[in-house]
Write a structure and sequence with these properties.
Blueprint: H1 2-13, H2 24-49, H3 54-84
Length: 92
C-alpha cells in the first residue's frame, strides 16, 4: 500500500504550469527578494566607490550589476503578472 501512496503524492506535487495567481505568501517572498537584491546592489556600489584596488572594484561593480539584473527580473515578472490579471467581476 505504501508504493501506491507514494505515487499519489508524486502526482499531486507535479504542476504542469504555474498558477495564474500569486498568493499573499508568494508576494511577500518576492518583495523580500527584491529588498535583498536592492540592498546588496547598493552595498556593492558603495564598496566599489570606496575601493582602491582596481580588481576588487571591478568585482564589486560586477556583483552590483548581478543584483540589479535579479531585481529587474523579479520586477518584470511581477509586472507581467499584474498585466495578465483579470479584474474581478462585481467588484467596484
Amino acid at each position: 500500500m505504501q508504493p501506491q501512496n507514494m505515487n499519489m503524492q508524486n502526482q499531486q506535487g507535479v504542476m504542469p504550469e504555474p498558477p495564474g495567481v500569486i498568493s499573499t505568501k508568494d508576494s511577500m517572498y518576492l518583495t523580500d527578494m527584491m529588498s535583498w537584491n536592492l540592498l546588496s546592489m547598493k552595498k556593492a556600489h558603495f564598496f566599489a566607490e570606496h575601493c582602491q584596488d582596481p580588481e576588487i572594484k571591478a568585482l564589486m561593480e560586477k556583483c552590483g550589476q548581478m543584483h540589479q539584473r535579479h531585481y529587474t527580473k523579479i520586477l518584470n515578472h511581477m509586472n507581467v503578472h499584474l498585466q495578465n490579471q483579470q479584474p474581478l467581476s462585481g467588484m467596484q
